[in-house]
Design a protein that fits this description.
Strand content: 35-45%
CATH class: Mainly Beta
Largest sheet: 9 strands, mixed
Number of helices: 2
Structural class: mainly beta
Number of domains: 1
Distance between the termini: 53 Å
CATH topology: Neuraminidase
Helix content: under 10%
CATH superfamily: TolB, C-terminal domain
């Protein structure tokens, strides 16, 4: 058996959407220095996961969403289960468990609040979006379909998806199976509310062939449509350039709306940062020998690390996003309005361990920290897989006795 992390393909790149920089679209220029800079301290509200006698047991908590009544839903990716908690952190019930029946999930790594009364989970196998109400009552599931014709031995799979104002956008891969080999095409697409593809922003081959030596080239392997978010009214924000502060905005049918750009000086990585970037690559195989892997790591990190839509604003996180301030981790975001005007740089001080804890930011000045998640992920990984990291060995941060907890924080100012 062979596990392909990103895919297996060496075909010509196909673009469905070209760069819009040459098109006559509005350009929103933003200065290097933000109009406002704020530092916000975070205060712990509640903590769950380390009390004896609790009616639940966490495996690996991968994602958290909050409904309009303030209740929290925690997706356990290891156990394929969703736990529901009250606004003050009291366990209420499990709203979905592992299975293939109505309202049950399996290999689920992404979920969201579809509307005020519905939860939607991206199920891995079989490939579908499982829907149920806030108490777990099953609703009709959706099966994502795409316009691409890859023949019978083809299975599209969503990795991430977003739904807002009646619009759905998702990224994933087309998996092709032929003569005992697997290949993949990455895609970013718009879907209707029945999960039928209506437009493809980008589609291109991706991945490595594990049957021969691999060369990782950080710049050549850059996927320009992999960092995106869905805003209001079906607008899709995409950071399409690696070495620039450059965001393209499309409507739901792929028409260019505007460009958001900002002056941004490139800073070379230090030796430690280059080593960290190399160690960020992880390959795993089963039933075969790991091939030789060489690396071409760029002198510069990609400028925009990720983007998301919170409180009706565009949050942008650059690669220089974290530092230490007064023994707390400081996480900084550039906050834009919907049109692309830079409003402020907002820095949050929160107790979290880099590379070990996971932070998810929510509306209303809330943040959820999942502690010791990396140790939990390692413990959940089967020993049958051979795993190789960029430096050959993962730096030792893992603790078999570390407890996974979920901690809610709120802004103090």
């Amino acid at each position: 058996m062979m596990r392909i992390t990103l895919g297996l393909m060496s075909l010509a790149i196909a673009h469905l959407v070209g760069s819009i920089c040459a098109a006559e679209v509005p350009i929103i220029d933003n200065p290097l220095d933000p109009p406002l800079q704020r530092t916000i301290e975070m205060e712990e509200v509640w903590r769950i996961g380390d009390n004896e006698g609790e009616d639940f047991l966490f495996g690996v908590i991968g994602q958290v969403v909050q409904d309009g009544q303030g209740c929290f839903y925690l997706l356990d990716t290891q156990q394929s289960e969703i736990f529901k908690f009250s606004p003050d952190g009291k366990y209420l019930k499990s709203v979905s468990r592992k299975g293939e029946g109505p309202g049950e999930i399996n290999m689920c790594y992404s979920f969201l609040l579809w509307d005020q009364n519905t939860i939607a989970c991206k199920n891995g196998f079989p490939n579908r979006i499982v829907m149920f109400d806030l108490d777990g009552t099953p609703l009709d599931s959706l099966v994502p379909t795409t316009l691409s014709d890859f023949g019978e031995n083809h299975r599209p799979s969503l990795y991430n998806f977003a739904h807002r104002d009646g619009f759905m956008v998702g990224s994933g891969a087309h998996h092709l199976y032929k003569e005992g080999e697997q290949s993949q095409f990455f895609f970013l697409s718009a879907f209707d509310e029945q999960a039928n593809e209506v437009f493809c922003f980008d589609q291109r081959p991706t991945g490595y062939n594990f049957r021969k030596p691999i060369t990782v080239d950080e710049e050549a392997d850059f996927m320009p449509y992999s960092r995106w978010t869905l805003g209001k009214g079906g607008e899709v924000y995409v950071a399409t350039r690696r070495a620039e502060y450059f965001i393209e905005v499309f409507d739901f049918e792929g028409n260019p709306k505007r460009i958001i750009q900002r002056e941004w000086p490139l800073e070379k990585r230090t030796k430690d940062e280059i080593k960290e970037a190399k160690n960020g690559y992880t390959f795993s195989v089963s039933g075969m020998e790991m091939p030789d892997i060489s690396y071409r790591i760029s002198e510069f990190p990609k400028v925009i690390r990720r983007m998301f839509w919170l409180d009706n604003q565009l949050w942008v996180q650059t690669s220089k996003y974290a530092s230490i301030v007064n023994d707390h981790q400081a996480y900084s975001f550039d906050i834009f309005d919907g049109k692309g005007n830079l409003l402020e740089k907002r820095t949050f001080l929160i107790p979290a361990v880099p590379k070990e804890d996971q932070i998810q930011w929510l509306d209303g000045g809330l943040a959820v920290v999942v502690t010791n998640v990396r140790s939990a992920q390692k413990a959940a990984t089967s020993n049958e897989w051979e795993v190789q990291h960029g430096e050959g060995d993962e730096e030792a941060l893992d603790d078999e006795d570390a407890v996974l907890e979920v901690v809610l924080y709120k802004s103090l100012n």
